[in-house]
Amino acid sequence: LWRVNFEECNRRLYNSLAIDLFEKHVGGASRKVVEAILYADEQEAELSDGGVAPIMHDSSFVSQQDVLKASKEIHAVHLKASDIKEVLEACRDHDAGDAVLTAHGKSLPPLSSCIQTNGNIRFRTTEALRIARHLSLLAIIEQRFGSSARRVWNMLYLGGQMEQKAIATESMLHNGEAREVLYAMLRNGFVTLQDVPRNADRAPSRTFYTWRAPLDMATIRATIMLYRTANNLLSRMAHETSTNSELLRRVHLVNQGRMDASQLNASQLHKLKATVRITESALIDIESQIAIFS
């Protein structure tokens, strides 16, 4: 009996997300280096575990010789030890440059933490996915609430609790704009508001109001939004199928040779194909984002 190996599909998906992250932010030979490290570790895991590779794990330390050998098997090209060194240096340069952008809401966990060396080398897939999740969350916030919201949320996440006035000052926003962004994210569960009374009477005039950006809560909210979007896309597909049921029946007859293609409504068929193609493409993109948060 045959079955789909979901574990292997997930493992390959997680590895692909980690590789894409490095290719986008580090460039150069980073894609080939990370692929080679993961492949070398996979070969070692299959030998030691009887042909079963774990779904997602940080790779074991493998020698540079094994990495270079793996690159030849995958790409039929020779990586050099200098290529690995250049990727490590590019990661450190990226982290150093990115630290300057912290005030603008674009700071990242360090990419250099994903690749560890002690003479040998290993890749931390779990750390790479944590970075990818952080970036995807910021992208969702920016798409939903705007670039100012991204800056405010990331500043709160990095800085902890802050009052609205301090948030406006640090994020270089007018007080009214900061309030609008904060309450929009509060309504959608991406930030929390806590009152800290000075006195027991809890009078509003004698109460501090502080804002926080809990990562776990924001991640859950983003995941819910992604699933809702996917559900809307699936509903649209079902609606199009139902609305064009007669057209689809005729297409089926044409495919069976029982009807001439000239009897089809060409413009309606073209419109349906375009709608389905766009919807399916959006679904694939949403599914990739959902995988990051799963």
From TrEMBL:
Subunit structure: Component of the RNA polymerase III (Pol III) complex consisting of 17 subunits.
Primary role: DNA-dependent RNA polymerase catalyzes the transcription of DNA into RNA using the four ribonucleoside triphosphates as substrates. Specific core component of RNA polymerase III which synthesizes small RNAs, such as 5S rRNA and tRNAs.
Family that this chain belongs to: Belongs to the eukaryotic RPC3/POLR3C RNA polymerase subunit family.
Subcellular location per the Swiss-Prot or TrEMBL entry: Nucleus
Domain called DNA-directed RNA polymerase III subunit RPC3 winged-helix: residue spans: 139-212
Molecular function (Gene Ontology), one example: single-stranded DNA binding
UniProt-listed InterPro entries: POLR3C_WHD (IPR055207), RPC3 (IPR039748), WH-like_DNA-bd_sf (IPR036388), WH_DNA-bd_sf (IPR036390)
Name of the protein this chain belongs to: DNA-directed RNA polymerase III subunit RPC3
UniProt keywords, alphabetically: DNA-directed RNA polymerase, Nucleus, Transcription
Keyword Nucleus: yes
Superkingdom of this protein's organism: Eukaryota
One GO cellular component term: RNA polymerase III complex
